[in-house]
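Support request, please re-run this one:
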Amino acid sequence: MRIGLLTEAGYPYVSGDARLWCDRLVRGLAQHEFDVYALSRSQHQEDEGWIPLPRNVRRVRTAPLWMAEDEEVALGRRARRRFAECFGELAAVLCGAPGASSGGASGAAGEILGSASSASGASGASGGSPTSEADRFANALYGLAELAREEGGLTGTLRSEAAVRAVERACRAPGAHRSAREARVPDLLTVAAHLERALRPLSLDWYEDDGLGAVDLCHAASGGTAALPGLLARHFTGVPLMVTEYGVRLRTHYLTAPDAPPAVRSLLAAFQGRLAAEAYRQAEVVTAGNAHARRWQERCGADREKLRTVYPGMNARPFAEVGESPDCADPDTLVWVGRVEPAKDLVSLLHAFAEVRKQSPGTRLRIVGGPAGPEGAAYLGHCRTLAAQLFPDEAEGPHAAGDNPVSFEETGGPELPAAADAYASGAVTVLSSVVEGFPVGLVEAMLCGRATVSTDVGAVVEVVGGTGLVVPPRNPRALAEACVALLRDPERRARLGAAARARALELFTVEQNIEAFHSIYLEIVSRAPVRRDLLDGAGEPLPFAVPAEAHVPVRWTAASPDLAARSGPGWVASRPVRATTPLPAPEGAR
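Re-run finished. Output below.
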């Protein structure tokens, strides 16, 4: 099998967001070939280079999202009119305004939107004329893609004044949302710049027969812009698409853009939401890293029948020795491990530990981890100051040096060479976060066989199951009571730790992750294969080049209603590829 792996600011870059699980997936499926199509986020990321790639990575193609390549393409009058109609329709959908296609497109708009509608209808849309906001967005998007393919790119046009004018007209149109109508000139320029950046994949040359058209399956390692090349490959060549999200991109957008003006937030959220809905609609399978992310995907328009949960895979080997020796921990030590940042709420943890010390005076707390950026460094300094105020240095006698029961440490030193040593140093591992996605540190503690006390955020309950104690976030008293309960009951700690280790080994290992993705790959390829007509050296169809059973008509199962609704497989319109020259027939057969 040949898989096109699509990433944004991730694999194969050294500082990529999803490099670890992508690298483990590629190496774990060494029997299959991977073509990596990567979008980079900065010059610094590109300068850092790639991680070492295994042999089954056939090639890597990259494109920058942080800068636009110089483009000398000058559109003719007809092409400019088509761009204005398609981009204007896309902007109108984002603003909530009626567009040209809602009342019947005409002229160049009707031509390009109609052709896009026909193509997208073959891959999941319901008919010739768009009748919903999702269809209007899809038709405008694919119309721009077809125009970019015909003209050799649209990067310069998307940066032009015409694009800004199209956004302005959509915002000022009757029926537009109130937030869009209130957009000022700086807001319009910001929105147009973000749309140009997000739509840069339209101008790439990745969608021909020697690019993504040659793979059997496109796997987008995240939603958003990373899934856009997969959507275009499906539109142009019929290659099936799979989308994986360990953090829902739309949710991330909501959390990371709170300070933008209301008009900018509204329009960009509308674009991200429409793009996510189209990716979910066209994908054969959509996978989430946990039930929390899966609920977000459903709310954003994903079909429940397409959704699968594939937990992130953790390498259990570094924690095996500690997990098999549960009695090595200090019974009076609590451990917190992670990146120091405000979302981890170490302030509540310190106040909870003050309550713990009142009931168990000999207890110690080890906070292990470095700061996450400048904000994390400032937060770490604040936590150190608070710990010094809550717990003045204590000394056993007048001639002994004082010692604070709270220590701030990092792994890599002589006392804690690795993360496993940090978990081994305490009897109970604590997680105090107020915001959490998939709690990797919690899984590591479970692999070490440690009892845990966690706050009920993100996927914590789903990960812990019944193998640890869970308390409400921002509740120091509840956190303290749970910690004291485990510190005073070593037998219960041992039972919970053993159960936690068994659960982690069953659900959250690399092997489980790779096997789950492999099964989905085989299911997609068997259910929605890409047919390519083989030609001989003269360009004529090559008889009997494809086994006869590949042409058996079949009605697909209800697991994929889009496929079942067709009268035949969706690959009949794919472009032919050339085969090697056939062997000459024996003399007696001529």
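The radius of gyration is 28 Å. Residues 360 and 488 are 9 Å apart (CA to CA).
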